[in-house]
């Protein structure tokens, strides 16, 4: 079974980021109109996540889920439950900004050239987005995000899921 893929409407940008943290292929464009969004979701076999009841009623996407909660982590919990999504093997495998799959860990000397001076000695692997070139490593931000996920989805993620 292929992993779930999502198209997220303009009202759910923060949910899109959380889905990407979990490794789900999630398109998000705040500027796309409803017709183009539904067409994209249908053509690419994506589940459309929206808060827009009019879009669901009038445009009738092939696969969709209405999001009813306001809090992004509650939205994520509802998506995981409604679609019975499996937990990820690893967190932070996609860029949270542009959805690209992150590179393999960079060699330490290569990472040192790219990291800000304050972070030259990060003990974890450093990965880079091939699209927007953003760098990722397991710092305090990643630990806070993992803790938020564990609180929102207790017992869902296996212990040791990489961060």
Annotate the secondary structure layout.
Layout: E1 5-8, H1 13-21, E2 25-28, H2 34-44, E3 47-50, H3 53-59, E4 64-66, H4 72-82, H5 108-114, E5 127-128, E6 135-136, H6 140-152
Parallel strand pairs: 1-2, 1-3, 3-4
Antiparallel strand pairs: 5-6
Helix pairs in contact: 1-4
How much of the sequence lies in strands comes to 5-15%
Alpha-beta classification? alpha/beta
Strand runs, count: 6
Q: What is the H/E string?
A: EHEHEHEHHEEH
Structural features, described:
It is a single chain. With about 160 residues, the chain is α/β, with parallel strands linked by helices. It has two domains: about 80 residues, Rossmann fold; about 45 residues, no CATH class. It is built from six helices and six strands; from the N terminus they run βαβαβαβααββα. Helix 1 links the parallel strand 1 and strand 2. The radius of gyration is 17 Å and the shape is globular.
Summarize the structure.
This protein has 163 residues and is of the alpha/beta class.
What features would you highlight for this structure?
alpha/beta; four-stranded parallel beta sheet; two-stranded antiparallel sheet; 12% strand; globular
